[in-house]
Design goal:
Blueprint (H helix, E strand, L loop, with lengths): L1 H9 L6 H12 L6 H10 L6 H13 L3 E4 L4 E4 L8 E7 L5 E6 L4 H10 L8 E5 L11
Parallel strand pairs: 3-5
Antiparallel strand pairs: 1-2, 3-4
Helix pairs in contact: 2-4, 3-4
This protein binds zinc ion (ZN) (2 copies).
Length: 142
């Protein structure tokens, strides 16, 4: 939260109450939230009931790296290490939608060497793995 506030300060950006609240909502849940869910929350709190308000706030947060979009779920999660250059990979639980962000290096490993072989330069990759988180595994003991 402070990282985002400082970043906006430094870059002369407006960290509006809506942007702040959207980031806060995403930070307090370790799961992805869709734009519609976020809009519902904002409406309940009287921060804006117009979809563009939520979308603009999300756009802002994604552009500046505080939030990542999970293409697979069409939803958003707060970044675990904002302010750092990184290529995240996501592990998404099919059962509870919990999302874990891990750093990934798309230019190394199998994908990287395949790309080098054909002379392809990777700029961005979307790495999203779906499966079952520890708490949703049937054999979990709790
Ligand atoms: Zn991140
Ligand atoms: Zn789960």
């Amino acid at each position: 939260m402070e990282t985002a506030a400082r970043y906006c300060d430094r870059h002369g950006l407006h960290f509006t109450p809506t942007r702040r609240r959207v980031l806060e909502l995403l930070l307090t849940r370790h799961r992805a939230l869709g734009a519609y869910d976020l809009l519902e929350k904002l409406r309940e709190e009287g921060l804006g009931s117009q979809p563009p308000v939520a979308y603009r706030a999300l756009d802002f947060l994604v552009t500046h790296g505080f939030v990542h979009k999970i293409e697979h779920l069409n939803a958003y999660v707060a970044c675990s290490h904002p302010g750092e250059e990184h290529a995240p990979a996501f592990m998404i639980c099919r059962t509870c939608d919990a999302v874990v962000e891990t750093p990934a290096r798309p230019t190394t490993g199998a994908l990287g060497s395949a790309a080098r072989k054909i002379g392809f330069q990777i700029e961005t990759t979307v790495m999203e793995a779906s499966g079952t988180c520890p708490s949703c595994r049937p054999d979990a003991t709790g």
